[in-house]
Design a protein that fits this description.
This protein is of the alpha+beta class. The chain folds into two domains: 165 residues, 2-Layer Sandwich (Uridine Diphospho-n-acetylenolpyruvylglucosamine Reductase, domain 3); 101 residues, 2-Layer Sandwich (Enolase-like, domain 1). Helices cover 35% and strands 24% of the residues. Helix 11 packs antiparallel against helix 12.
């Protein structure tokens, strides 16, 4: 195995252009598991952890730009948590403290597992994914970036460099169900965001991609009495109907639908109580 450790984004994009089949490594919380279990044997690895540009965070009144290598541990509290509370809630459920010290948004996006804890938040906040190559840079809405389970629109010569998360005007929250509260892959997860007159709902682990509940959002938008507790039960039912879960070794489809109904209902109730 050949491992390259670039020190700048320019060096990294040059390397990946020369080695388009190389595996990109930041925290290694996904890739190294597959390597350790002999599920993958990469010939070439490009380690991105030493690139300063990927560790930068920028916060203003409208947006938060988070470098692809910023660890989840930094998102749990402080300025990022104040600006994007739902992301902080998701970050606190990611693995053990050791995993949160290494894992990042870039890793979640690169892997694009429907169970990725941060991904429902990126969906519900209408986040943007930044990519770079020797040819230049481009920005892709998260809604267009994830194309399937563990598939995305990143080209072989591109590196995920950052995520722009628009700040929202209202309450936002995240919750998940697993065999325990944290340090576990989610069975079902949800993010609810209130922004101006909008309600946004995104679901994880219950479909081939992150699911935006657009039918439920449109139904809510048409309501006259939006913030009554009586709305929450039907909202949960509608969100559950938009999920597309499967049976697997972690749970059944029926349980996942039930979990989504409860998660969406409780998050909505938390939001309207603020």
């Amino acid at each position: 195995m050949t491992v390259f450790i670039p020190r700048s984004l320019q060096e990294a994009t040059t390397l990946i252009a020369a080695h388009p089949d190389a595996h990109l490594l930041t925290g290694g919380t996904d890739l190294m598991v597959e390597v350790n279990f002999n599920h993958r044997r990469p010939e070439t690895v490009i380690s991105l952890g030493k690139i300063e540009e990927l560790h930068q965070v920028s916060i203003d009144s409208d947006h938060v730009v988070i470098g692809a290598a910023v660890p989840y541990a930094r998102m749990e509290k402080g300025d990022i948590a104040s600006a994007i509370p739902a992301l902080a809630e998701a970050a606190r459920t990611v693995g053990s403290p050791q995993i949160r010290a290494a894992g990042s948004l870039g890793g979640n996006l690169g892997t694009c597992s429907p169970a990725g804890d941060s991904l429902p938040v990126l969906s519900a906040t209408n986040s943007l994914v930044h990519l770079a190559s020797v040819s230049g840079t481009r920005v892709v809405p998260f809604s267009e970036f994830m194309t399937g389970p563990k598939r995305n629109s990143r080209q072989p010569n591109e590196i995920i460099t950052a995520v722009t998360v628009p700040r929202t005007s209202g309450w936002q929250g995240y919750a998940k169900v697993g065999t325990r509260n944290a340090m576990v892959i989610s069975v079902a997860s949800a993010c609810v965001v209130f922004h101006e007159e909008e309600l946004r709902i995104a679901l994880g682990s219950v479909g081939p991609t992150i699911i935006r509940c657009t039918d439920t959002e449109n139904w809510y938008h048409a309501l006259l009495a939006k913030n009554e507790a009586s709305v929450s039960k039907e909202l949960g039912e509608r969100a559950s109907q938009e999920s597309r879960p499967i049976d697997d070794h972690r749970s059944t489809a029926d349980y996942r639908r039930h979990a989504i109904k409860i998660l969406a209902q409780r998050l909505f109730e938390r939001g309207i109580s603020q």
